[in-house]
Each structure stands twice: as C-alpha cells, then as structure tokens.
TrEMBL record:
<dbReference type="InterPro" id="IPR008906">
    <property type="entry name" value="HATC_C_dom"/>
</dbReference>
<protein>
    <recommendedName>
        <fullName>HAT C-terminal dimerisation domain-containing protein</fullName>
    </recommendedName>
</protein>
<dbReference type="GO" id="GO:0046983">
    <property type="term" value="F:protein dimerization activity"/>
</dbReference>
<feature type="domain" description="HAT C-terminal dimerisation">
    <location>
        <begin position="10"/>
        <end position="88"/>
    </location>
</feature>
<dbReference type="Pfam" id="PF05699">
    <property type="entry name" value="Dimer_Tnp_hAT"/>
</dbReference>
<dbReference type="InterPro" id="IPR012337">
    <property type="entry name" value="RNaseH-like_sf"/>
</dbReference>
C-alpha cells in the first residue's frame, strides 16, 4: 500500500523542528516552499479577517439566542446553537 504525497508531506512536516513560540507562524509559511500544499492550508487558516463584521454578526446572533427566556443556557450550548445557525444554511437545511 502506497502513502499519498499529501500524507508524506504531513508526516515530514510533523517531524520538522517546531518554530520558536514567539515567532509569527505566517513568517515561517511565507518562506516555506518545502510543503506547498500545507502552505496553502496554513495561509487560509492563519489569515486575519479583513474586518470585524463576522464577529459582530456572531455576537448579534448570540444575543438573539440567549435572551431573557433563555438566560440559563450554558456557554457550550450557546456556542453550538450559534454554529448551527450559521452553518445549517450552508447545507440547505431549512428549519
């Protein structure tokens, strides 16, 4: 059974020494061409949002979910409800 190139990249990367804790990981990935597929993933997930609109929208949704009638809702359940509220529409789930 052969190992896929992507899996080899991940395994090789995991064996690579860690960067210093205070170093910005984006700097590492800007110059790291050894793992081009992993570099694309890192650039996607290490990027900063261009504005605070998404977080403001999330706080607004949380405020609508946790109201006076739901004041005992746990943080974990509130988090799950916010996640479902924003992601169910992406899979065309109607509620």
């Amino acid at each position: 059974m052969s190992i896929q190139p992507e899996q080899e990249d991940v395994e090789s990367y995991l064996r690579f020494p860690n960067i210093p804790i205070k170093q910005d990981p984006k700097i590492y990935w800007r110059q790291e061409d050894k793992y081009p597929k992993l570099k694309k993933i890192a650039q996607k997930y290490l990027s900063y949002p261009m504005s605070s609109v998404a977080s403001e929208r999330l706080f607004s949704t949380a405020g609508l979910i946790q109201n006076d009638l739901r004041n005992r809702l746990s943080a974990d359940n509130l988090n799950k409800l916010c996640f479902l509220n924003k992601n169910l529409q992406k899979v065309n789930f109607n509620y």
